[in-house]
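Dear support,

I submitted the protein below through the web form. The confirmation email said the job was done, but the results page showed an empty box. After a refresh the structure appeared. I'm attaching both so you can tell me whether what I see now is the final result or a partial one.
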Amino acid sequence: MTLGHRVRVVKRSRSGIPKGAEAVLGDVTDEGVCVSAAQGASTIYHCINPAYTTSEWRALLPRYAANLIAAAGRTGARLVVLDNVYALGRPRNGIVSADAPLAPVSRKGEVRARVTRQLLEAHAAGHARVVIGRASDFYGPGGTLTYVGDQFWPALLAGKPVRTITGLDHPHTYHYIPDVADALAQLASAPDDATGRAWMLPCAPAPTTRALMTACARAVGRDLTLLPTGIVMQRLLSVVIPFLRETPEMAYQWAAPFVMDDAPWRARFGGTATDLDVGVAATAAWARAHYEPVADARR
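What the results page shows now:
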């Protein structure tokens, strides 16, 4: 979706700032930076995520929220927040709804639940206008840190086995990155009665993770060999790969069906999510351009 708006991106460095966007260098842990950067804005998009550790999330996510609430309150901008579904815990009957009660079953989910309350309480108190868009795991062009990103494409394109750390054969919703971006833009311009709550962003019917990966392999003409890494092996490897210490508590998301319910979104905003085959084709084209030099070096 191209809306022709002036866009300002706040980061600590210039890396990754899209062409045509205004760059503001600063740290969002500084309230003054947030308030200054938001001057003149109609919408503040909160899409910041610290390193994937519970300690970082506890230290930074509430602080990010507080500073952006302050910026939104002082400038009058609407605060549109991209969130995951960790705060909602285990799904009932395999279905996750954005308006389900906050019921986290992980340490990171507890942090997310705390921040959700912080945001919605600020809205209810009139301190800022807030709306939350929830999404499950991502895939799509530019998704280097997704499940089909840096750890997937270089191995696949080089003809090597792909290691996985989750279950593969239950339905699991993957949100397509361009759909997420378009939906957040819709939340920015929606009537005020759409604010003060969380919405599940639009998503296609959930594939299994194996089906998603197989479709990606087919799109680039490669055979897919998967090497699942069980919990015991993850714990052993976590001695040398710290990231793996953070993953076991989230295993419930792949141990059973984990399907997002976007019916309220469709009822309110209409439209449909991108079909999986269309999304995979676009992702594969991007992956070839982005990862093939890396894959060539691994052959």
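Response: this is the final, complete result; the empty box was a page-load delay. The first strand starts at residue 8 and ends at 11.
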